[in-house]
């Protein structure tokens, strides 16, 4: 948000310095006053001192300095001096929450001023109007101010006026006009050496990028602004608020809430800014699924805004309170009346939250059976401008879809769902970072659910398959976009490996703190340096059902779809598509956890432990699992190869336990479209093989050495040579890669899931630096196949990161395995690969040899073949 400041007077550099370098300005003002200057110069010194204090957050003391400056200005008898100080005092009072007194001072200043000075006063009155949310009145003042200041050649104040006008245009949805004003302001600030305000212009350019959906650019601009603010010794609360908005748009709600709570705790006595920080924190808490925290913060913000007579902010805070009540489970006529009233007030104020308020009112009206009220509210929610950001357009299309659904207009509902998902495709594809893409899909879950319910009502399995694919694993549709040879990212990853390696050797609180710092640096770098492809590629990964049927041939595809807490299986076999209701999703998740628990126990069981001491047999568990996951769909599998497409929350499934899937090739993929793409991947011409042995694996050594005999020309990296950079260089574009290394899955931050190498962990961020993943990859370590469900059926993890990078097939475990028992299985799998079998077929044939050994059998059932 912009700031208002003072003008140049007799001491011509002191007032501009107050905004550019406030600490220096205060020191210069004190030095000047020590010499007992005349009233005019003393007035300027106190005014500069006050502006500097305001910039540093000490508004109470700033007001005292400005009142002294005003008394000296009145004593000087110069009306222009009095008008200038009145304007600065009025703007500062407005920022302190005393808007009525502030506007009265500013109105008096307008009356006293002439020419360019009137332009500077109008700017500061616009500042208070902006704080109050009176955007149209502020725009009128700024248009007049810019005209006057441009005619007078006052570049600094013209830049400030354009900065303000750009901010208001942005608040009203005019991104092009806003960016034009910010660009001019930036040039003028640079030309006149206004360092603080140049930082502010960079911050506002970030807001334009955010409004356009370009989140990586927005984060980079905000980061640069933060560095420039720090360089002039200023902590700027608006920067935290803007970063919160960008993080929320990216789906990073937990990070946004933590940042805002930290900013609230650090904020000093600026009442206006404290309210805005609390409002942003409440919004973040709501997005993070913590309605109690949202209500507490929003209520504190609302009280502050009401006391400051800031209606625009107060009404928006009331809306967050009502959304928190809804998120807590409250429903009914009373809440509907409150939300409808607040939605109307937001409309009148031109607030961007109006559409979301109408959407909530529409939902509440549907809940209580008020069809006409719901229709009207959802009609209002469906309004949007053509240049609105993609997420705002998607929310509007959701309103249209809900309205059409309530009216029984199936065609209109499906069209709105498609258009809403298209808007989110545009939003998502502007981001190059895998994490941002995956998280962004969560916005489309309800749109996809509406279409899936319609497919169920029609009993149309083809539609169920198409819509199930429409918003599934789309983040894996294209590889992450990184700038070539990002040396800074590579350096931070290397430093992180070194710290983790030392931590493993000797736990140390200081090293743990450094690990957290480096992880944040790596994550921030990845989020900010990636930029996505243009939206013209949207839809390039959409599933063509006809192509899928033709590609399957004798293979059977089973796609599992969850709708309303119920699991359905869509089976594609011999060109026929059928639907089967399996049962509750919760029951399926429970059987998966039971199976994983039993496999973990077997992996660590002592030799010759009676199987009865370990619970039900694997066959019994497998039969239960098959019934809970596949139900009657099992009867259609026959003895054919199978492609399994589970939803994200069921991805950690040991498919080898299911009796109907034993002794056959089974490929597991996050979407049917991903399987089709994996099939189209062609193997490299040079058939290069890479074998990697990480530290601390005695069984892995025998495994890798035996494989080296099977592949005499292989590149072998072990015994100190298995370092991240060497391994990445060798893996890039390889035909087959086999890595025997301890694996770690990080549920808290899945892109830091890793394989342990000689110089530390090789993370997902490292793998994303590959130009092309190995064609086939075997990860014989624990948990290497796990991924975390995020967004709408998206997966983030070690193995999933290799799919968009060109890997056709990956063999990995979804539970911990017994390393000695795994080695024979891996050797047999590679023998079958050399004989020309696919990865899934090679693994299935290798598993046959584990019969009779409970531990080896458990290890075989713990792996899955991902891809094609």
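^ structure tokens above, recovered residues below v
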């Amino acid at each position: 948000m912009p700031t208002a400041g003072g003008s140049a007077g007799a001491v011509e550099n002191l007032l501009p310095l107050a905004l550019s370098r406030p600490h220096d300005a205060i020191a210069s003002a004190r030095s000047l006053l020590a010499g007992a200057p005349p009233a005019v110069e003393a007035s300027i010194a106190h005014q500069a001192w006050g502006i500097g204090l305001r910039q540093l957050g000490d508004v109470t003391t700033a007001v005292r300095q400005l009142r002294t400056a005003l008394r000296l200005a009145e004593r000087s008898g110069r009306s222009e001096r009095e008008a200038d100080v009145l304007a600065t005092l009025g703007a500062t009072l407005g920022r302190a929450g005393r808007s009525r007194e502030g506007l009265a001072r500013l109105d008096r200043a307008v009356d006293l001023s002439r020419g360019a000075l009137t332009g500077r006063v109008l700017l500061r009155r616009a500042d208070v109007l902006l704080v109050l949310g009176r955007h149209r009145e502020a725009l009128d003042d700024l248009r007049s101010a810019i005209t006057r200041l441009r005619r007078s050649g006052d570049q600094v104040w013209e830049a400030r006026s354009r900065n303000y006008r750009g901010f208001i245009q942005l608040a009203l949805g005019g991104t092009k006009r806003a960016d034009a004003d910010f660009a001019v302001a930036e040039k003028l600030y640079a030309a006149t050496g206004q360092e603080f305000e140049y930082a502010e212009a960079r911050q506002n350019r970030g807001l334009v990028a955010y409004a356009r959906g370009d989140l990586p650019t927005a984060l980079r601009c905000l980061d640069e602004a933060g560095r420039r603010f720090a360089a002039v010794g200023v902590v700027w609360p608006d920067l935290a608020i803007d970063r919160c908005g960008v993080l929320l748009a990216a789906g990073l709600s937990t990070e946004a809430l933590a940042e805002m709570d930290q900013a609230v705790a650090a904020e000093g006595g600026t009442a206006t800014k404290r309210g805005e920080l609390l409002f942003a924190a409440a919004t973040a808490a709501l997005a993070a699924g913590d309605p109690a925290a949202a209500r507490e913060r929003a209520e504190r913000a609302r009280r502050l805004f009401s006391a400051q007579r800031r209606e625009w902010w107060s009404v928006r805070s009331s809306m967050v309170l009502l959304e928190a009540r809804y998120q807590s489970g409250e429903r009914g006529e009373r809440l509907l009346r409150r939300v409808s009233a607040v939605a109307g007030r937001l409309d009148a104020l031109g607030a961007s939250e109006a559409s979301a308020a109408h959407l909530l009112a529409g939902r509440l009206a549907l809940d209580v059976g008020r069809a006409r009220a719901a229709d009207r509210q959802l009609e209002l929610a469906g309004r949007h401008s053509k240049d609105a950001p993609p997420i705002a357009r998607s929310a509007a299309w959701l309103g249209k879809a809900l309205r059409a659904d309530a009216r029984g207009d199936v065609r209109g509902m499906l069209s709105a769902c498609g258009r809403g998902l298209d808007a989110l495709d545009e939003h998502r594809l502007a981001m190059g970072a895998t994490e941002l893409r995956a998280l962004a899909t969560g916005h489309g879950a309800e749109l996809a659910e509406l279409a899936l319910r319609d497919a169920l009502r029609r009993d149309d399995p083809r539609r169920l398959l198409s819509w199930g694919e429409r918003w599934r694993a789309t983040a894996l549709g294209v590889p992450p976009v990184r700038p070539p040879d990002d040396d800074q990212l590579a350096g931070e990853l290397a430093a992180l490996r070194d710290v983790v390696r030392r931590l493993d050797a000797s736990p140390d609180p200081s090293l743990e703190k450094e690990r957290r710092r480096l992880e944040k640096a790596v994550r921030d770098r990845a989020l900010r340096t990636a930029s996505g492809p243009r939206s013209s590629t949207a839809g390039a990964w959409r599933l063509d059902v006809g192509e899928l049927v033709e590609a399957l041939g004798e293979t059977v595809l089973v796609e599992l779809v969850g709708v309303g807490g119920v699991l359905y299986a869509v089976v594609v076999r011999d060109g026929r598509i059928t639907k089967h209701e399996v049962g509750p999703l919760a029951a399926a998740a429970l059987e998966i956890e039971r199976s994983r628990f039993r496999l973990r126990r077997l992996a660590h069981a002592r030799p010759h432990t009676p199987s009865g001491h370990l619970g039900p047999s694997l066959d019994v568990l497998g039969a239960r699992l098959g019934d809970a996951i596949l139900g009657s769909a099992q009867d259609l599998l026959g003895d054919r190869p199978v492609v399994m497409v589970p939803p994200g929350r069921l991805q950690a499934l040991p498919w080898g336990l299911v009796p109907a899937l034993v002794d056959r090739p089974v490929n597991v993929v996050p979407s049917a479209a991903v399987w089709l793409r994996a099939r189209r991947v062609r193997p490299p011409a040079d058939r290069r093989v890479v074998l990697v042995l990480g530290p601390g694996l005695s069984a892995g050594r025998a495994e890798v050495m035996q494989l080296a005999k099977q592949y005499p020309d292989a590149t072998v990296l072990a015994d100190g040579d298995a370092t991240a950079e060497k391994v990445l260089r060798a893996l890039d574009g390889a035909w087959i890669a086999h890595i025997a290394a301890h694996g770690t899955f990080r549920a808290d931050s899945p892109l830091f899931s890793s394989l342990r190498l000689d110089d530390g962990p090789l993370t997902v961020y490292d793998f994303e630096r590959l130009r092309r993943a190995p064609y086939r990859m075997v990860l014989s370590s624990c948990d290497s196949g796990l991924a975390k469900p995020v967004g709408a059926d998206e997966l983030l993890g070690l193995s999933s990161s290799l799919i968009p990078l060109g890997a056709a097939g990956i063999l990995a475990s979804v539970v911990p395995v017994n390393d000695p028992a795994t080695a024979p299985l891996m050797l047999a799998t590679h023998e079958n690969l050399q004989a020309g079998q696919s990865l899934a077929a090679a693994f299935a044939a290798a598993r046959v040899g584990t019969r009779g050994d409970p531990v080896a059998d458990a290890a075989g059932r713990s792996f899955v073949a991902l891809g094609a």
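The two ends are 51 Å apart (CA to CA).
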